[in-house]
Amino acid sequence: MSEESVMNTKDFFIGALIGGLVGASTAFLVTPKSGREIREGINEQARESTTSLVDKMKDLSRSMRKDMKELTDSADYLIEDFDDLSEDIAASVRQEVEDLQRSVEQLIREVEEREKAKKNGEGRV
């Protein structure tokens, strides 16, 4: 081998070594956290997200319970209103039936009186 090719090989290895050191130093300086710190950060974010999700689910559950209670209360008020309304309707129907019974009784008396009058009138003839 010639001296020039030995020099090129030597220069290449020196350049590769210096480049590797510069790259490793740059990576070490630029990387904000170690692998362990990154994993811990990811785990912490996962815990926070889980906690946040649980809190949101609890809030949603409370809200749904509140809405269901309001809906139930509204239904109770409607039922009471319908009960009152049905009592009013029942009283009105009862009154109408009583009026109808009195009218029918009156008609029966009138028919009976006419029949009596007819019989009394025929007996005289």
Automatic annotation (TrEMBL):
UniProtKB keywords: Coiled coil, Membrane, Transmembrane, Transmembrane helix
Keyword Ribosomal protein: no
Domain of life, source organism: Bacteria
Transmembrane segments: 12-30
Keyword Transmembrane: yes
Coiled coil regions, renumbered to chain: 90-124
Listed Pfam families: YtxH
Protein name: Gas vesicle protein
Organism, scientific name: Alkalicoccus daliensis
